[in-house]
Amino acid sequence: MTAKHLQDTVKLSNGAQMPWFGLGVFKVEDGPQLAEAVKTAIGHGYRSIDTAAIYDNETSVGQGLREAMREHRLARESLFVTSKVWNADLGYESALAAYETSLAKLGLDYLDLYLIHWPVQGKYKEAWRALEKLYKTGRVKAIGVSNFHIHHLEDLLRDAEIKPMVNQVEFHPRLTQPELRAFCAAHGIQLEAWSPLMQGGLLDNPTIADIAAKYGKSAAQIILRWDLQHGVVTIPKSTKERRMIENASVFDFELSPEDMARIDGLNRHRRVGPDPDNFDF
Question: Which residues form the active site (predicted)?
């Protein structure tokens, strides 16, 4: 099913409801501007906010969430908040402690989704045991991974009691990851896109510009709509109100199968971020 509204959700394998569309805050500095951006996004109907320990901005995200809940009289349950455990904390006890640190910075009682940020070899299974404990004891509503290739998922699933509910990966028209999409779909793992706009690198693409002109939409809107029609949750980053509104205005049109195929044809297996098989941090 393709989302029809900004607050439409997809049901994860455990029954939790995750918004199809959210706000990412990667590389946004901790401070008043970020708190205001989070509050502004929620004011415009966003209900999902994605952060991470390594972004070093959970404090301002939490401030923005609390201000928005007060101002718009929203229950905590109406929001979907994601954070991620960083590589340095991928032990069992250290991942449990990292979760408590993230919660304290955010000023929340629980997270809706907690992810292992990168598949550090020899470490992610211990961290996954910690996430399973957090989930089984009701501390987090859903658990998942980020940047996991198929072989990482296969390795994790061999010993996991609970399968990941989400895999957040780099995904955009230059990196369409069809095999990973098919694997996740077959295993009930929801794919989520980070860097859906390729850090702006696709906004001048002639094919996308041509399709954008046809629908009377921006290049960004075309790409984000393409994500949704592929059944991929997407979290574009912005601190500008105008851009947040533009990004979220993707529910009043539908790309034709032909135009979906044209965008699919832009795939070059090209990354703007590190390859999960070859990173050193």
Answer: 55
Catalytic residue among 55, 99, 114, 135: 55
Angstrom distance (rounded) from CA 168 to CA 176: 13
3-state secondary structure of 87: helix
Distance separating alpha carbons of residues 136 and 262, to the nearest angstrom: 43
| DSSP-assigned letter for residue 269 | -
Global pTM reads 0.97
- Asked if residue 44 belongs to a known ligand binding site, the reply is no
Per-residue pLDDT of the chain in tens (281 residues, 90 and over written 9)? 578 999 999 999 999 999 999 999 999 999 999 999 999 999 999 999 999 999 999 999 999 999 999 999 999 999 999 999 999 999 999 999 999 999 999 999 999 999 999 999 999 999 999 999 999 999 999 999 999 999 999 999 999 999 999 999 999 999 999 999 999 999 999 999 999 999 999 999 999 999 999 999 999 999 999 999 999 999 999 999 999 999 999 999 999 999 999 999 999 999 999 999 999 99
Q: For domain 9-203+227-237, give its CATH number from 3.40.50.2300, 3.30.450.40, 3.20.20.410, 3.20.20.100.
A: 3.20.20.100
Q: Are 3 and 35 in contact (CB under 8 A)?
A: no
Closest CA to 110 of 92, 85, 88, 137: 137
Select from 80, 111, 85 the least CA-distant residue to 7: 80
- Other beta carbons within 10 angstroms of residue 25's beta carbon come to 26
d(CA 149, CA 171): 12
Q: What residue ranges do the domains of the chain occupy?
A: 9-203+227-237
215 is catalytic: no
Write the Ramachandran bin of 246: left for phi over 0, alpha for psi from -120 to 50, otherwise beta: alpha
Type of residue at 85: V
